[in-house]
């Protein structure tokens, strides 16, 4: 009996030590992003990691490569490896809900960055750019730039991403009021530069006479511009992007792209990391959605901006 009691005391002591050791270990933050094939998301992820380090936490970046199945593997890894929070840039508004829900069930808070999931409670908070409002403004500029008439093309992003449709709807809420503007093609290029170039080349074969291109992100805008250069039409067609990426900012300075919308990934990433820090320290009440304002950038105001932000 004495041996049994001694064994139980020893087990309790060892268990207590393990819990104490775990409590003393630095918190770990997983940063799961949709893709690192886009410089904008690289900046988002690296900024989140830098802020996490400044706050005293370990972090690791996981690249989902725009693949929800790979994203699921990253979540399984984060949960089983003892990560304490996940800063999350989803691959799919609907398909990514299950991963956030799984983390929540494991007691791990999830803070979405830039991309939204279709759930009101799976994520602890979602920090999102106000894409719709920005594209209302971009649409107005598009109308004025084209003189309220002409043929245009719209390149959509990933169709399962809410940002794609928020941007498209904001744009059309302005442009569709002008019957002189005719959309001759609307196709997805998955937010990808190379695919946008290929899609644009194909569209130009069917619709050689266009006056403008509205793209759901800067990567697609740059791809569309490349296709226009190859077709000797770059000086006749106005190209609009969205993001505020470095190559787009430089292209606006050089008179290649007409405009973009500046998101602020530094604010988004740092807010997500700061929310994780506050969660660790006991805060549990966070805004379910935090909109971050987006600003239209043109050649007229380009001197106020640098890649991914303001000067």
TrEMBL record:
Superkingdom assignment: Bacteria
Alphabetic keyword roster: Signal
Primary location recorded for the protein, binned into one broad class: other
Molecular function as annotated in GO: carbohydrate binding
Gene3D superfamilies per the UniProt record, alphabetical: 3.40.50.2300
Classification via SUPFAM superfamilies: Periplasmic binding protein-like I
Protein name, as recorded: Monosaccharide ABC transporter substrate-binding protein, CUT2 family
Originating organism: Flavobacterium fluvii
């Amino acid at each position: 009996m004495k041996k049994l009691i001694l064994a139980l005391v020893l087990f309790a002591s060892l268990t207590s030590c393990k819990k104490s050791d775990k409590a003393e270990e630095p918190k770990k933050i997983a940063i799961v992003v949709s893709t690192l094939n886009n410089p904008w998301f690289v900046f988002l992820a690296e900024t989140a990691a830098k802020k996490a380090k400044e706050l005293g936490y370990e972090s690791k970046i996981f690249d989902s490569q725009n693949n929800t199945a790979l994203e699921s593997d990253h979540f399984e890894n984060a949960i089983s490896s003892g990560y304490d929070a996940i800063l999350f840039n989803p691959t799919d508004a609907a398909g990514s809900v299950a991963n956030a829900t799984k983390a929540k069930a494991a007691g791990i808070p999830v803070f979405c960055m830039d991309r939204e999931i279709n759930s009101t409670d799976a994520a602890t908070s979602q920090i999102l750019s106000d894409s719709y409002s920005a594209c209302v403004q971009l649409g107005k500029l598009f109308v004025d730039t084209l003189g309220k008439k002409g043929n245009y093309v719209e390149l959509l992003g990933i169709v399962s991403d809410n940002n794609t449709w928020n941007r498209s709807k904001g744009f059309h809420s302005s442009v569709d009021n002008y019957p002189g503007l005719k959309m001759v093609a609307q196709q997805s290029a998955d937010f990808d530069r190379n695919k946008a170039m290929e899609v644009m080349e194909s569209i130009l074969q069917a619709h050689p006479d266009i006056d403008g291109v509205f793209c759901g992100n800067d990567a697609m805008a740059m791809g569309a511009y490349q296709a226009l250069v190859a077709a000797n039409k770059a000086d006749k067609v106005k190209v609009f992007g969205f993001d505020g990426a470095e190559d787009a900012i430089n292209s606006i300075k050089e008179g290649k792209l007409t405009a973009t919308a500046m998101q602020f990934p530094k604010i988004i990433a740092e807010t997500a990391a700061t929310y994780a820090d506050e969660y660790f320290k006991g805060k549990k009440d966070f805004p379910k959605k935090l909109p971050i304002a987006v600003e239209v950038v043109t050649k007229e105001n380009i001197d106020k901006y640098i890649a991914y932000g303001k000067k």
